[in-house]
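Could you help me review a protein record that somebody else here produced? This is what I was given.
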Amino acid sequence: MQDSLKENHLVLTGSVVKTPKQSTSPAGIVHSQFSIDHKSIQNEAGMNRQAFVRIQVAVTGELSHLTHELVVGQCVKVTGFINRHESRNGNPLLVLHAQHIQMIN
């Protein structure tokens, strides 16, 4: 498969809607999860369209310390990649795995 077909990079701004939850793996790696809402107007085929996304964000390792500062309503810019997870009842979910989190005032 060509490298260009392997790209997986997402940048999304939004507001925190679920307080971060932290856990530690048996290997001692800290994991955090929270959700953000993104709302915007996007142009598609010359027409304005409202875009709304709520996505779960997974944070692993050293970056997890940033989630201590997050509160519901906080605006953030999250950069990372998306990956498929399964919910507890087996439904597929897309999760944004954060590689960079920026607080927006």
